[in-house]
Design a protein that fits this description.
Layout lengths: L7 H26 L1 H27 L11 H69 L4 H46 L17
Helix pairs in contact: 1-2, 1-3, 2-3, 3-4
InterPro entries: OPA3-like
Family: Belongs to the OPA3 family.
Function: May play some role in mitochondrial processes.
Length: 208
């Protein structure tokens, strides 16, 4: 039986949702106990939210009110505590998303740097081999006839190209297989959702 990758993102989101309830309750209790917390942290955003909400609803319904009655202190404190709890949860989730984006960007940058370094190394190897080939040609030029020298040069170039082609194909194949495996793993992590399949029922035998 094949088991897919466990969706860690969904587990983290569920954990945040579960933590939000006791966190909101603690904020409400702190708002009830602390006059400073209630006055300067909970009440201003609650009254602003209430004013915007009522103004929007009245505009949608076609009413034009000059003044909107503010909430009482208890209702405003509870609404402000709820808003603060939601803001904390949103900030935590946003921070996690930013960290994941930064991690993926850093990983991509490291892969690009590694690829550039590999290409530069291969170019240096090619230049070194070409210089060695030129030196060998200079050494054997005086001893071999012109036709033999051309044949040797062609053979050396063919061997060099075949060797370089084989090395490049092997490295590219390994990199492609690694990227494909990472892509498959990421797809399994993001998209796996177990489905409940209905049980198959045997057809009833025809009645005689």
């Amino acid at each position: 039986m094949v088991v897919g990758a466990f969706p860690m993102a969904k587990l983290f989101y569920l954990g945040i949702r579960q933590v939000s309830k006791p966190l909101a309750n603690r904020i409400k209790d702190a708002a009830r106990r602390s006059e400073f917390f209630k006055t300067y942290i909970c009440l201003p955003p609650a009254q602003l939210y209430h004013w915007l909400e009522m103004r929007t609803k009245m505009r949608i319904m076609g009413f034009h009110a000059e003044a909107i009655k503010p909430l009482n202190e208890d209702a405003a404190a509870e609404l402000g505590a709820n808003l603060l709890g939601e803001a904390i949860i949103f900030a935590a989730a946003g921070s996690c998303l930013l960290l994941e984006f930064w991690r993926q960007k850093s990983s991509k940058h490291r892969r690009e740097v590694a690829q550039v370094a590999t290409v530069l190394s291969l170019r240096e190897d090619v230049e070194y081999l070409e210089n060695m080939l030129d030196e060998v040609q200079v050494q054997v030029q005086a001893a071999l006839p012109r036709n033999s020298l051309d044949e040797l040069r062609a053979e050396l170039r063919a061997e060099l190209r075949a060797e370089l082609r084989t090395e490049l194909q092997a490295e590219l194949r390994a990199e492609l297989q690694d990227e494909l495996q990472k892509f498959r793993t990421q797809i399994c992590k993001d998209c796996y959702e177990p489905e409940l399949k209905p049980e198959l029922q045997c057809p009833e035998a025809p009645k005689e």
